[in-house]
Specification:
The protein has 404 residues and is α+β, with helices and mostly antiparallel strands. Helix content is 32%, strand content 26%.
Length: 404
């Protein structure tokens, strides 16, 4: 105990990552235990520069996710809480509802399964025959659809900024972590690129695209590897073609939702994303290549096993990436009026997808604990929607360590 008292801690909790999950965690900790000192280290010059700020801004209902899973529980709860949070702080948002549309007969059983899943997750859905689709989306065509009324859109970057402010945490931007030194029973010391050393009693790893690397720096084996997938978007040149949100029926074998249309809070309509392997963790275009990161991905046995298992699906995604005509063809299944000229290139995002050693794409949120550390190892979509419940779940673990 004498040794512990001699350590000059800079904070009680040290959070790595200033995206919406890291900032929600800081917010939840200080709400649950006022007076807890929290420092957030973010390598960028502002919050939410990667997954949080580069998605389609959808507040997901939770209809897709396996009943009882963290994704299902946290997305359903998080959607309601996110709307309330936005309303409380005057953050732009809208509850628009969305259509999930079957365009082929083979998709009908999967559509009906989604209806059942939605009911199991406590989500009200309305089943539509082909003629009823036009009530919601006059330009959309399909064999059948379901309407999910609780889906919405918001400005997740503004949410992240508000969480940072309300948390009262010390946020250090431009603080890239280079080294983590953990001492059993004592805590962690983190060295950043500017030469600073920050000491805390507990480390929280919300590093997103780099969460596996931070876990290994800490001395914990994450048991997974982040394989980055780029999602490419277009903006619809004729936004009047779409009133709200329109999705295809997803393939349950993959944690991706397919190319969809999203009317955002700014009135524009995003089209996308596809899902192609990125050649860097921040590989927002084919021209961004980081050989070390490519090497890390290729050295992971799970990457090869995943590729062998899903090469056909992946080939289709790459084809839509390199061919605008192929991308347009995918959109036209839902929206026949769209033309290649209607699609204007927009900013891409990268999904931090955890892949296990056996090639399994982790389908649920993944949170693991180590000595004096909590690691968020898989938090892609719908993590922004679910960020408030995720933050509380991580906070409970952290406060358990501090109080232990």
């Amino acid at each position: 105990m004498e040794q512990v008292r001699k350590i000059a801690y800079d904070c009680d909790v040290l959070v790595i990552g200033g995206g919406i999950v890291g900032l929600s965690t800081a917010y939840a900790i200080t709400r649950a235990a006022p007076g807890t000192r929290v420092t957030v280290l973010e390598k960028e010059r502002g919050p939410a520069r990667h997954q949080t700020g580069r998605n389609s801004g959808v507040i997901h209902s939770g209809i897709y996710y396996r009943p009882g899973s963290l994704k299902a529980r946290y997305a359903v709860r998080g959607a309601t809480e996110m709307v309330k949070f936005c309303a409380e702080y005057g953050i732009a948002h809208a509850v628009t509802g969305k259509l999930i549309v079957a365009t082929q007969r083979a998709e009908l059983p999967r559509l009906h399964a989604l209806v059942q899943r939605g009911r199991e997750n406590g989500i009200p859905v309305r089943e539509l025959v082909a003629a009823q689709i036009a009530e919601y989306e006059p330009e959309v065509r399909g064999l059948a659809a379901i309407h999910v009324g609780t889906t919405g859109v918001c400005d997740f970057v503004a949410v992240a900024r508000q969480l940072a402010e309300e948390s009262g945490a010390e946020i250090r931007y431009g603080a890239q972590v280079l080294r983590v030194d953990r001492r059993a029973g004592l805590g962690v010391a983190v060295r950043t690129a500017d030469g600073a050393v920050v000491r805390g009693r507990v480390l929280v790893n919300c590093a997103g695209l780099y969460c596996d690397e931070i876990a290994r720096m800490t001395g914990d084996d994450p048991g997974m590897r982040i394989i980055p997938f780029r999602g490419e978007y277009y903006e619809l040149g004729r936004p009047e073609l779409v009133r709200g949100l329109v999705y295809p029926v997803p393939d349950p074998a993959f944690p991706f939702l397919g190319v969809h249309l999203t009317r955002g809070i700014d009135g524009g309509v995003h089209v996308g994303p596809n899902a192609v392997p990125a050649l860097a963790r921040e590989g927002y275009g084919w021209g961004v290549i980081r050989p070390r990161e490519v090497g890390l991905a290729l050295s992971w046995p799970g990457a090869w096993r995943m590729a062998r298992r899903h090469w056909r699906y992946g080939g289709g995604e790459v084809r839509r990436s390199v061919s605008k005509a192929a991308f347009t063809e995918a959109v036209r299944r839902l929206l026949p009026a769209v033309t290649e000229g209607d699609l204007v290139p927009a900013a891409s995002g990268v999904r931090a997808q955890a892949v296990l050693r056996d090639g399994t794409l982790v389908d649920d949120f993944l949170i693991r604990e180590g000595e004096r550390a909590v690691h968020v190892l898989n938090a892609p979509s719908p993590a922004a929607t679910a960020s408030l419940p995720i933050g509380r779940a991580v906070a409970r673990r952290v406060l358990g360590v501090l109080g232990g």
